[in-house]
Amino acid sequence: MEILWVLIALVMLGVVMSSFLRRRRGAVGLVPPGHPDAADPANYGFAREEELDIRMPGPDQDLLDVLDLVQRTQDYRAAQQLLAGTDRESELRWQRVQAFAGAASLELQQRPGGVGEAPGGQWLRVWRTEVPKDAGGAAVHAEFLVQQAWRTAAPGTDEFRIIMEEAKAACGEAALLAPGDPIPYLVELSVARGLGYARGDFEQIWLKILDRAPNHMGAHLAALHYWCEKWHGSRQEAYAFAEAAAARAPQGSLLAAMPLFAVFEHLPEVTLVSGFYQSEVVSRAIHGALHAVHSARPDDPMLAHVRHLLIFFLVRAERWAEAMSQLVHVDGHVGALPWTLSADPAAEFAVYRALAVAGYEANGGSPATLPH
Q: Where does the pLDDT of residue 114 fall: very low under 50, low under 70, confident under 90, or very high at 90 and above?
């Protein structure tokens, strides 16, 4: 009996010491909403979870206005005009092409059509029919087919291959309509990944992109997927590709953040190594991304993408203040990695944001001490 009491005492002492040490280290624990110790993101002016916009990584009011008009009226012309007025080599045009294609794809998914009912995304079909020589419409259509393949079929199936082959043909048509435009080749990078292009064929597409837009961040991210271990490359090849891009990045380019995306693409499903997110490889990639963010133009369309991924890594590394510094710039929009991999991007983002706020406050931070 005495031994039993000794064991109980040791367990109780361990619980008390564990609680004490967690408080000393500023560790973060989850408590129910409304609890007196619960950190409230609203105190920092952050948007409520239900207000988070999952369509884009950051604000683009012109795009939002046009999307609303097109979907409300089913008239493509506003989208056509917006793309025609956007620099064809810019990151912004690529994001807008993706947004229009994604909107049409989601409409079709929600309203597949049937007897007496037109399918969703009809405006894109009308766009291609009425102005078949329009380069913007051709690019959106090619990207639409790619998104349809990934959204509705499993890689390796006949259905997936049929849609991807159609997308490949659409990329060729779009390229003929705008010989200097990198976007048709950028769309084909995803086709190459899905259909498993031989490396020589993939590199031919990549060279065409480099000729047209050598520092295009979106193109580099699309190419990185091909070189990843889970597709047609390896961890070493993906890291080498990302590090080479970072090394040749001009001053102010977000290509310096590429190694962080390579690390993310090769995260282990289960982290068994203590301090993995404080390891040298991860810390070096975080440092490169932070440097890229600090050096980039404030209006760089890819800046929000890098900030979102930084939030993920900084929270995992328990670098709370730095995570909060990124949050104040992107809160309100969650249409970016890693959140878009979740079935509920807004909820996933909200969890990391709550952890950042709790960690920040556990280490003495407050709304008054957070720089904006």
A: low
Buried b (16+ CB within 10 A) or exposed e, 22-56: eeeeeebeeeeeeeeeebebeebebbebeebbebb
3-state secondary structure of 114: strand
The pTM for the full model equals 0.86
Residue 252 and residue 256: Cα distance in Å, rounded? 9
Q: Average pLDDT for residues 129-157, to the nearest whole number?
A: 96
Least confident window among 149-163, 230-244, 302-316, 358-372: 358-372
334-363 pLDDT per residue, tens = 999 999 999 899 999 999 999 999 999 999
DSSP 224: H
What number of residues does the chain have? 372
Show the DSSP H helices in the chain as ranges. 2-24, 61-73, 77-84, 91-110, 122-130, 135-152, 158-177, 183-195, 199-212, 217-227, 235-247, 258-265, 280-295, 303-316, 320-330, 345-362
CA-to-CA dists, residue 42 to 239, 260, 293, 350, angstroms: 38, 29, 25, 11
